[in-house]
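TOKENISED FOLD:
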Amino acid sequence: MHAFEYHRPSSTKDAVSLASNKTEGRYLAGGQSLVQAMKLRLSSPSDLIDLSLLKDLAGIKVSGSTVEIGAMTRHAEVAASAAVRKAIPALAALAAMIGDRQVRHMGTLGGSLANSDPAADYPAAVLGLGATITTNKRKIEADKYFTGLYETALAAGELITSVSFPAPKRAAYMKFKNPASRFAIVGVFVADFGGKVRVGVTGAGACAFRQADMEKALAAKFAPESVANIKVKPDGLNSDLHASPEYRAHLITVMAKRAVEAALK
């Protein structure tokens, strides 16, 4: 790990100000990804700006048919929230699947989305639910947020403050997980908004993406058989020691079918 300066601001304003004055500064949320990357010297920020004191960035609010979750809200808090379980049970269930207990009690929603790991779980829900990411500067639609491998629409120094999730009629998330890390080799989030269906996929590509063919089929008939025979092309999908592009393409269909089955229960 390279040397760095550590900062612990007491306000969001101070955090953003620090980031704007540090050319290689990075925000530190839960540290579940950034600290590991620093240990491996894959990331070498000059300054770490710890967000742990910023209570205004944490918390869960339900207003009408929208669930707003602060960027510094831990995965475990989302999983245990009675409000989330009632409004969007699939989102609470997804949070409960992330990593292990230590990761869930340290990792944050904002940190996960800012990092945009290709195998992270939350990106599938953000796309599947059509969420809106709010930063200190603007609001970003889910479909415009994920741009590539570990890349997002966030500008340098831009800070995620909260994420708003519309509550669907029904939804579910299913993933084929790596047994060691519990990251998604492929994860699929399916959400039915009553005539309009969104399908978010994670783990399969360089970043999360939507599956248009499945959305169209499920909008016509929300049933497992609607997606069972859809053949996803492997072109451009991830290839590693865990799964080939062809296997990941097959898993998208399998996980989507299971997600629809779960959503109908």
